[in-house]
TrEMBL record:
Organism encoding this protein: Cellulomonas composti
UniProt-listed InterPro entries: Kinase-like_dom_sf, Prot_kinase_dom
Name recorded for this polypeptide: Protein kinase domain-containing protein
Top-level taxon in the UniProt lineage: Bacteria
Signal peptide: none
Species classification: Bacteria, Bacillati, Actinomycetota, Actinomycetes, Micrococcales
C-alpha cells in the first residue's frame, strides 16, 4: 500500500489503535507496517481487503484468531471499514521473504529447504485443524526471521475464505522446490516432494517426507548489504521509490491524508515511508519532532549525563571513529558518535557500514536498510549533521536510552546521471535512541519518540 495514499479512515483506525504507518509491507507492498505511538517496539501489519463481517467471515476470523502457532503470524483484530472493506491487524515478523532471500543468495540446500518447509507445514496443519485454509502459500508469504525461524504471513486470503487445504500444500511444495537448485541433490528432495504437488496430501505428509529425505540444517541468511542490494533491485522504478522521490523533490502530498497524524503530533514520522525525508533524508528514523523543544526538566530518578555538542561533516569521507578503537562506554557520547557515523554511512550508501551503527536485526537496522534502498543511487551534497545535545535518560550496562537533539543541514540530491534535485531543508529534531551493548560497543536498537 502506498503510504502517501493512505485513506483517512485507515489512518483513523491506526491512530485509534495507537499506531502510525511507517511504510509498506507484505507481498508487493500490499500492506502497511505500523509502529506503536507509545514508543514501544511493538509493530503490526495492516491490510485492507474487500469484505463484510457476515456470519461466515466472523467464523473464519474467530478460527484464525484462535490459532496459536509459532510459525504462523497471528491475526490480532479485524475492523469493518466503510465501503464493504475490512482492516486486518496482523502480527509483524521481521525478516526477508523467501523470494527476497533467494534474490540475495544462491538456491537453498536440501537441508535448508526442509528447515523452511517443515515448520510451515506444521503451521498449515494447525490452520487446517482449525478449519481454515491460508490460501496464498508461496515465496512471498513465507518470511525467515533473523533467528532463522520461518513464519507464514499474509492472511488476506484466509480471512476472505478463498483458499483450500490442498492448495496450501501444493503452494508449499512448489515454494520448496523452487528454492532448490535445478540439479537434483543427493537426497533427491525434488523427487520426495514432487509426488505431493497435486494437493491430495495433507500438510503432515510434507513433514514426514522432508524428515525422511534429509536432516534439516540452519538457513544461511544473506548479509545486510546483500539483502539491501536485492531489495533495491526489487523496488527500482517501483512505487515505493517513486513516492519517496516525489517527496524529496518537493512535490506536494495531499494534506488531508495526514490529518489524523497531525492531531496525534506525529506528522513528521507519518509523512514519509522512511521517516527521514521530512526531517532531511538522513535524520534519525522515528517520531522525531520537526523543531527541537527545550528540555522541560530532568528525568525523575534518571542518571542525567549530558555530552557537549558535537559537529560532524557527514559528507566527508573521514570516519567518526576507527573500528579498531576501544568502544565508547558512555552511552551519551556513543549516541553522538553513532548519529554522525550513521549520516556518513547513509551518504556513502554503504549498507554494510550500518553494522557499525545499528544492532543487526533490530527495528532501526531494518528501517535504515529500507532508507538506503529508497535512494536508488542518489548522493546528498552539502549535508552536515550537528549533535546539539545527547543526554542519557536511563538504563544499565546493557541497555540505555539517550535523548538526542540534532540538526541536519540543507542539502541537494545528485543522481547517477549528475542531475541535481532539491533535497531537504535544515531541520532540528529530537529523538530517543535505545542503545544495546554488544561485543563491538553500543549500537542503536530502535528510535523512540522524545
Amino acid at each position: 500500500m502506498n503510504i502517501h495514499a493512505v485513506p483517512p479512515e485507515v489512518d483513523e483506525v491506526l491512530a485509534a489503535a495507537g499506531f502510525r504507518a511507517v511504510g509498506p509491507v507484505g507481498p508487493g507492498g500490499s500492506g502497511l507496517l505500523a509502529r506503536a505511538l507509545d514508543g514501544s517496539a511493538w509493530a503490526v501489519e495492516l491490510y485492507v481487503v474487500p469484505g463484510r463481517l457476515d456470519d461466515d467471515a466472523r467464523a473464519r476470523i474467530g478460527a484464525l484468531r484462535a490459532v496459536r502457532h509459532e510459525h504462523v503470524a497471528r491475526l490480532l483484530e479485524v475492523v469493518a471499514l466503510p465501503g464493504d472493506r475490512l482492516a486486518l491487524f496482523v502480527e509483524h515478523h521481521e525478516g526477508p521473504s523467501v523470494r527476497l532471500l533467494l534474490a540475495a543468495r544462491a538456491a537453498l540446500s536440501e537441508g535448508e529447504a526442509v528447515t523452511v518447509a517443515i515448520p510451515i507445514a506444521q503451521g498449515l496443519g494447525a490452520l487446517h485443524d482449525a478449519g481454515v485454509a491460508h490460501g496464498a502459500v508461496g515465496p512471498d508469504s513465507v518470511v525467515v526471521r533473523p533467528d532463522g525461524r520461518p513464519v507464514l504471513v499474509d492472511l488476506r486470503a484466509a480471512v476472505a475464505g478463498t483458499g483450500a487445504a490442498g492448495g496450501d500444500v501444493t503452494g508449499l511444495v512448489e515454494c520448496a522446490l523452487a528454492a532448490l537448485p535445478p540439479e537434483p541433490g543427493p537426497a533427491d528432495l525434488v523427487g520426495a516432494l514432487g509426488e505431493l504437488r497435486d494437493g491430495s496430501a495433507d500438510a503432515r505428509r510434507v513433514v514426514d517426507r522432508c524428515f525422511r529425505a534429509v536432516p534439516p540444517e540452519p538457513v544461511l541468511l544473506p548479509s545486510a548489504a546483500d539483502l539491501a542490494a536485492a531489495d533495491v533491485a526489487r523496488v527500482q522504478g517501483g512505487e515505493r521509490v517513486a513516492a519517496l522521490r516525489r517527496v524529496a523533490s518537493g512535490r506536494p502530498v495531499a494534506p488531508d491524508r495526514w490529518s489524523v497524524a497531525r492531531r496525534a503530533s506525529i506528522a513528521v514520522a507519518a509523512l514519509v515511508l522512511v521517516g527521514g525525508l521530512a526531517v532531511g533524508v538522513f535524520g534519525w528514523r522515528g517520531a522525531a519532532r520537526a523543531v527541537a523543544e527545550p528540555d522541560g526538566g530532568s528525568a525523575a530518578a534518571a542518571p542525567a549525563s549530558t555530552s557537549p555538542a558535537t559537529t560532524s561533516q557527514a559528507s566527508t569521507s573521514q570516519a567518526t571513529t576507527s573500528p579498531d578503537e576501544q568502544p565508547e562506554r558512555d552511552p551519551a557520547r556513543a549516541a553522538e558518535l553513532l548519529t554522525t557515523r550513521r549520516a556518513q554511512v547513509l551518504v556513502s550508501a554503504d549498507a554494510a557500514g550500518l553494522d557499525g551503527v545499528d544492532e543487526v536485526g533490530g527495528p532501526a537496522h531494518a528501517d535504515d536498510l529500507v532508507l538506503l534502498a529508497s535512494l536508488g543511487g542518489d548522493r546528498a551534497v552539502g549535508l552536515d549533521v550537528r549533535v546539539i545535545e545527547a543526554r542519557a535518560l536511563d538504563g544499565d550496562q546493557q541497555v540505555a536510552r539517550v535523548r538526542v537533539v540534532s540538526t541536519t543541514s540543507a542539502y541537494e540530491l545528485v543522481g547517477p546521471d549528475g542531475a541535481t534535485r532539491a533535497g531537504g531543508p535544515s531541520v532540528t529534531a529530537t529523538v530517543v535512541l535505545e542503545l544495546r551493548w554488544g561485543h563491538d560497543g553500543w549500537r542503536v536498537w530502535q528510535v523512540l519518540p522524545a
